[in-house]
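Purpose: get a first structural picture of the assembly so the mutagenesis plan has something to point at.
Setup: two entries, given in the order below. No constraints added.
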Amino acid sequence: MPVRHADSVPREPVEPGRRTSRQVLIGPDEAPNFALRRFTMQPGGGIPAHTNTVEHEQYVLRGRAKIGIADEVVEVKPDDAVYIPVGVPHWYRVEGDEPFVFLCIVPNAPDKMELLGA
Amino acid sequence: MPVRHADSVPREPVEPGRRTSRQVLIGPDEAPNFALRRFTMQPGGGIPAHTNTVEHEQYVLRGRAKIGIADEVVEVKPDDAVYIPVGVPHWYRVEGDEPFVFLCIVPNAPDKMELLGA
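Result (structure tokens, whole complex):
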């Protein structure tokens, strides 16, 4: 690929997300160091608190959400950049009645996701 | 930072770009593996043909442009993902009368940009 329109990329459901799907726009089999993915969370959706063994660099494209990062809760909107370091607990909850859409870039490394208790 | 609004990040001119600026949204001093930058090219702007020693993963946010990648020319629009491997000649030219805005993620590695002859 040199170019791929995001809307043409298949969506896969994200567990344990609610109403959340992921599209791999540039995958670990296509580029050597990191993968570009797009997440869409429908209204009412989100992902409960968890940790990962890879860091996340994110960019909000559309919609609004609350994101918990460690002990902080931030409300994000389009054109916000978000950084979640390795091992830091985080969660997502869509705000409002529009889908929340964001890019999430992760290194090409094994990720172990661990859900945290309620 | 957990969150940073892109519009609050200073712009630096990109040489040898024309009417082109760069904002470092998440820099190599903040995250271990790759940097998230946003480029804005005003109408009439672009970057001439060159190579880099780091790959680019890109996502178009606004506007339209023609991008030359190796021997191919593609016209890109919002929500297009673009991959430019290490060492592949590429150039950018804004199309239309709106700014062309895109994200460009690169690994945290030294980059040597080499301009190519006209």
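The domain at 11-115 of chain A is CATH 2.60.120.10 (Jelly Rolls).
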